[in-house]
Specification:
Strand order of the largest sheet: 2-1-3-4-5
CATH architecture: 3-Layer(aba) Sandwich
Order of helices and strands: HHHEHEHEHHHHEE
Largest sheet: 5 strands, mixed
Distance between the termini: 53 Å
Number of helices: 9
Number of domains: 1
Number of strands: 5
Structural class: alpha/beta
Helix content: 40-55%
Radius of gyration: 26 Å
Bound molecules: zinc ion
CATH superfamily: Carbonic anhydrase
Length: 274
C-alpha cells in the first residue's frame, strides 16, 4: 500500500498542528451533527413517487429488495408468494379444463415488454417437451422466469439463474416442477438397478438424480415407485436449492417461497408437494 494513504475505515494521522486542529473541529461537527442555520438537524428530503406517496421502505438486512414496489397486479402485498401460487393454480385449472385464456401473447403486449420484464414467479422444470411451464400454467410472455434442466437437476448455471430471478427480478416464488414418467428419473432408477449405461454428460445428470432414487422406499409397483422417485427428486431439489444458495436462503426470511410441485401428464394437473 502506498505511504500516505489510510486503509478503508482507518483514520489518517495528522502531520502538523494546524491539521490536528482542523481534525478536532471536524470531529466536533460530526458529534453534534450537521446543522442548518435555523438550528434544526438537517434531514434528507423524503423521496416521493409521482403520485405523491412516499416510496416503500427498503427491507432490513437483505442486500437487495426482495419485495418489489406495488404494481397494478397486486404485487408488493405481504404475501406475494401465495398470491403468485394462486395465480399459477388458477392458470393450471384453466389448462386442465381446456378453458385457457392464452394471456399476454398480443403484439401490443410483446412490444410493451421491450421496456423490461417483471415475471411473477420462477419455475425450474424438466426439459421434457410435454411440460412447458407457460402452457401448463396458461401464462404468456413476461409472466414466468423459466429455467429447465432434465430431472430439475441443479448445477451452477441453474442456481445462478434462479438467484438472478429472485435477486434482480424480485420474483416472490420459485416452483420446482417435477412430472409424471420423467425419463431422467427413470434413467436414474435403471442406473441403481444396474440396467442402464450412460455416456457423456448424461451420466452426470443421471448420477445427480441417483440419491433421490436411493432415498425412495422400494415398491414392487414400477409406476408407483417412479412417481415416488419423482416426488422425492422434486422435494430434494427444493431443499438443495435452499441449502446451496445464500441468496435464496436469505430471501426466504423475507417471504420468498420455494415450492415443489408435480405435473400429471394425462390430466394436465399440477399438484403442490410442499
Ligand atoms: Zn422429466
Amino acid at each position: 500500500m502506498a505511504e500516505g494513504y489510510a486503509r478503508r475505515g482507518e483514520r489518517s494521522q495528522p502531520t502538523s498542528p494546524a491539521e490536528h486542529l482542523r481534525g478536532r473541529r471536524r470531529d466536533r461537527r460530526r458529534r453534534s451533527g450537521s446543522r442548518v442555520p435555523d438550528g434544526h438537524r438537517r434531514r434528507r428530503p423524503r423521496s416521493r413517487v409521482s403520485d405523491g406517496h412516499p416510496r416503500p421502505r427498503p427491507l432490513p438486512r437483505l442486500p437487495f429488495p426482495v419485495a418489489a414496489p406495488a404494481s397494478a397486479d397486486g404485487a408488493g402485498s405481504p404475501d406475494r408468494a401465495e398470491q403468485s401460487w394462486r395465480k399459477l393454480a388458477a392458470g393450471n385449472e384453466r389448462f386442465v379444463s381446456g378453458r385457457q385464456k392464452h394471456p399476454h401473447e398480443s403484439l401490443r403486449w410483446r412490444e410493451k415488454l421491450v421496456e423490461g420484464q417483471k415475471p411473477f414467479a420462477a419455475v425450474l422444470g424438466c426439459g421434457d417437451s410435454r411440460v412447458p411451464p407457460e402452457l401448463v400454467f396458461d401464462e404468456g410472455l413476461g409472466d414466468l422466469f423459466t429455467v429447465r434442466a432434465a430431472g430439475e437437476v441443479l448445477d451452477g448455471s441453474v442456481v445462478g439463474s434462479l438467484e438472478y430471478a429472485v435477486e434482480h427480478l424480485h420474483v416472490p416464488l420459485v416452483v420446482i416442477l417435477g412430472h409424471e414418467s420423467c425419463g431422467a428419473v427413470k434413467a436414474a432408477i435403471d442406473l441403481v438397478n444396474g440396467t442402464g449405461h450412460f455416456t457423456g454428460d448424461v451420466s452426470l445428470l443421471v448420477r445427480a438424480i441417483e440419491p433421490a432414487v436411493r432415498a425412495t422406499p422400494a415398491d414392487p409397483d414400477k409406476a408407483r415407485f417412479l412417481a415416488a422417485c419423482v416426488a422425492e427428486q422434486t422435494r430434494r431439489t427444493a431443499t438443495l436449492l435452499v441449502e446451496r444458495s445464500t441468496i435464496i436462503r436469505e430471501a426466504l426470511q423475507h417471504g420468498v417461497k420455494v415450492v415443489p410441485a408435480s405435473y400429471e401428464l394425462r390430466t394436465g394437473r399440477v399438484t403442490r408437494l410442499g
